[in-house]
Amino acid sequence: MTAMLNVRDLRAYYGQVQALHGLSFALNEGSLTTLLGANGAGKTTTLRAICNMVRSTGAIEFEGKPLSGKSTENVVRLGIAHVPQGRGTFTTMTVEENLQLGAITRTDKKNIVADIERMYEHFPVLKERHTQQAGTLSGGEQQMLAVARALMLRPRLMLLDEPSFGLAPLIVRDLFKILGKINREDKVTILVVEQNAQLALELADQAYVIETGKIVMSGNAKEIASNEDVRKSYLGY
Amino acid sequence: MELFTNQVLAGIATGAIYACMALAVVMIYQAIDHLNFAQGEMAMFSTFISWQLMQWGVPYWWSFLLTLAISFAGGILIERLLFKPLAKAPVLTNVAGFIALFAIVNSVAGLTWDFTIKQYPTPFGSSPFLGSQLISTHQVGMIGVTLLMLIGLYLFFQFTRIGLAMRAAAALPESARLVGVNTSWMIALGWGMASAIGAVAGILIAPVVFLEPNMMGGVLVYGFAAAVLGGLSSPLGAVMGGFLVGVFENLAGTYIPGVGNELKLPIALALIITVLVFKPAGLFGRAIVKRV
Amino acid sequence: MSVAAEDTVTEAPAVEAVPKRAMTLGTGTSLVILAALLVTPVFVKNFVVFQMTMVMIYGIAVLALNILTGGSGQFSLGQSAFYALGAYTSAVLMENANMNYALTLPIAGLVSFGAGYLFGKPALRLTGIYLALATFALAVAMPQLLKLHFLEHWTGGVQGLTVMKPDAPFGLPIGQDKWLYYFTLAISVAIYVGSVNLLRSRSGRAFMSIRDNEIAASAMGVDVAQYKTLAFGVSAGITGIAGGLSAIVVAFVAPDSYTINLAIALFLGMVVGGVGWLPGSFVGAAFIIFVPNIAESISKGLSGAVFGVLLFIVIFLVPHGARQVAIVAQQMLGKLKK
């Protein structure tokens, strides 16, 4: 397998403050990888650095092409969808308009309509509410909308920033099931940042653990889950 | 009663001017989230360009179209050259930039075309409309064009992909970038469109107020007021606001003793503010709930 | 759902947060500047002295706006109205009641404070652009109100009022201009020191908490309404004192000296000086007094355009105003010391 995304020696800064201290990792095509870590470890910053939303140095390559110097929207246009923390819902627009926005860079008009229908199959609740203002959806529904919107790009790689945040456990389970399905059926490579380590490790096949801006552990998700330290610090038993 | 109806009619006629300007104001507000204080001057400059073209012998409608194209390009150019570098500067610095632009445009127009007032033609004629002395065919034409622009904008924003992208960029720039929208160009496009709409407003207003470099000063204030009254997030609200302000102003001038021409503007503004105290997002605007 | 039509946003404050310590100059720097200001009149012509006096007066008015905007995050385009109110209060008291010029200033301040406080009450419900429009209305109305017929007996109507320019007291051997310079300097220093202390006080912290996050401030028990109106009142009061001073120094008041253009000039002064940085107020005031003259001398016909271009150059180079220059200078000094 070749690495689809290759990150080497990534350092990121917020003003004078350095948030990432030489982070390196790789994602295999078709994999579902999770990035675990405590609050402030640099998980969100890593995702933001991939999309060039924060000042950073180091090399990031996507399918062999360097991403540095590209604007956020041009990174997205390469097929990298990013579901941000807080979901980034366009609250004043309808659910359907949100989905159309996800496909705004695509030119294949006919397929877009079909894709919206497919999203409604994945997430039936969105179909029920497709003319409703997105701001009126519940948190879980907005998270589904955010995932659906990202999928409308027909991404090769999808980055998810704490999709479980603020959601009821049952809804999180549903959501993760769908993510797994998307990964298997639509062949979308997924990188998910999570605090809910248990669920994330159940779902993922690869895992990285990040502490204060550095990768401290990496490997097969099952191995990581059985690791003594990880169990104590992140799984709590 | 007849006095009242007449004043309302006259108010609607002047209101058409404000509605036209307010539409341009809302347009730029949607794109850049600020009120552009130089917008009136830009519209004035566009009107002078069309006047100059006609002086050179270009027929009315051709000069109209050419002016729209020049204004559109000019708006984009101004954004790229002067305001893109200020994108990361504080809001108030941007406002200072608008004031600087105001001074530049006004002064250049004054030097190029001097400050004497000029007649500006109207394609609609200026005979009384349906026998009424208070409203002329030009003013009716103006209302018609404003409504057409309103419908055009509505269709553009609701049903085109680029309209959708512009709305997204204005609402949540970061999220918009994450779906691949080039927000920086959306802003430039917003400037171009606002500038073109302003040009239409200027060309329609010029036959009424006459063409001179300071012609838009008062109009822009009323345009702002109308846009704010109607709700800055709603083009329809802006147009309605324009008519309301026109009627407000006329009725205040007629029925409140001691107002006269001089105090018309402050009274109209005071009324608007009173409305805003009770409806802070404007009559047609969307309320915004803030979170910590 | 009842909130269907509402947007929820977490909005960044419109005015950047300036930490308290960064709002002023160090003691040493302040004293050097004060010393320079004390000796300058000895060496320059009377006209320059007059202009420097005007810089200080505008500086006070810009500072007042800075307390409102930089301090409490509210924005006003109506400062010219409070300035006019102060100027007319002083002028009317001096001409019609024969009051000593120095005594008219506190009254001018109080009258403007009252007006600002009262205006601040309804303005409470307005923020941002809406507040700008409301204050703008005030600025537009003021010259018209001053021209009103039934006030003409006191205000002199369109013609305005001419005021006697005071001589130096106790037979001091200096001219009127120089005396008024020192008089203005004393008041400027007093107001500057007072404002710095105000912003460092409990009230100042309350102002700034409102500026940075109104909802959080009220959750912490800051009486938001009270402090917002208070900020309006204080700002208007200080502006009124500046207006009163201007009436004394210019020896003339007329409605058309206090149009919206004055309010816009004061706003530009604040931006050029740096929003929230009190010493910058005086730098900004110098900008709005001298740069239009410079523009005029470069090109008479295009003076407006030259002014606009100069203003653009300034905001391109230092989008945060003179404060940015001060910060850079401080950093360079810090490096030299090492």
TrEMBL record, chain A:
Q: Which GO terms describe its molecular function?
A: ATP binding; ATP hydrolysis activity; branched-chain amino acid transmembrane transporter activity
Q: Where are the transmembrane segments?
A: none
Which residues are the signal sequence here?
A: none
Where the record annotates domain ABC transporter, the positions are: 5-237
Task: List the Gene3D superfamilies hit by this protein, alphabetically.
Answer: P-loop containing nucleotide triphosphate hydrolases
Q: Is Disulfide bond tagged as a keyword?
A: no
Checking SUPFAM superfamilies in the record gives: P-loop containing nucleoside triphosphate hydrolases (SSF52540)
One GO biological process term: L-amino acid transport
**What keywords were assigned to this record?**
Amino-acid transport, ATP-binding, Nucleotide-binding, Transport
- PROSITE patterns reported for this sequence: ABC_TRANSPORTER_1, ABC_TRANSPORTER_2
What does this gene product do?
Involved in beta-(1-->2)glucan export. Transmembrane domains (TMD) form a pore in the inner membrane and the ATP-binding domain (NBD) is responsible for energy generation.
Q: What family name appears in the similarity comment?
A: Belongs to the ABC transporter superfamily.
State what protein this is by name. ABC transporter ATP-binding protein
User: Which species is this UniProt entry from?
Assistant: Bradyrhizobium retamae
The lineage is:
Bacteria, Pseudomonadati, Pseudomonadota, Alphaproteobacteria, Hyphomicrobiales
Automatic annotation (TrEMBL), chain B:
Short name of any one Pfam family annotated for the protein: BPD_transp_2
Residue ranges crossing the lipid bilayer per the database entry: 12-32, 60-83, 95-115, 135-157, 185-209, 265-289
Provide the protein's localization: Cell membrane
Bilayer topology reads: Multi-pass membrane protein
Query: What is one process in the GO biological process aspect for this record?
Result: amino acid transport
Q: Which UniProt keywords apply?
A: Amino-acid transport, Cell membrane, Membrane, Transmembrane, Transmembrane helix, Transport
Q: Name the source's superkingdom.
A: Bacteria
Q: Which GO terms describe its cellular component?
A: plasma membrane
Entry keyword DNA-binding: no
Q: Which GO terms describe its molecular function?
A: transmembrane transporter activity
Protein family according to the UniProt entry: Belongs to the binding-protein-dependent transport system permease family. LivHM subfamily.
Please report the name of this protein according to its UniProt entry.
ABC transporter permease
User: Which source organism does the UniProt entry give?
Assistant: Bradyrhizobium retamae
TrEMBL record, chain C:
Q: Pull one GO CC term from this UniProt entry.
A: plasma membrane
Q: How does it sit in the membrane?
A: Multi-pass membrane protein
Q: Where in the cell is it found?
A: Cell membrane
Spans traversing the lipid bilayer: 22-43, 49-68, 100-119, 126-146, 179-199, 230-254, 260-290, 302-322
Which keywords does the record carry? Cell membrane, Membrane, Transmembrane, Transmembrane helix
First-listed, main subcellular location of the protein, grouped into a coarse class: membrane
Name it.
ABC transporter permease
Q: Which organism is it from?
A: Bradyrhizobium retamae
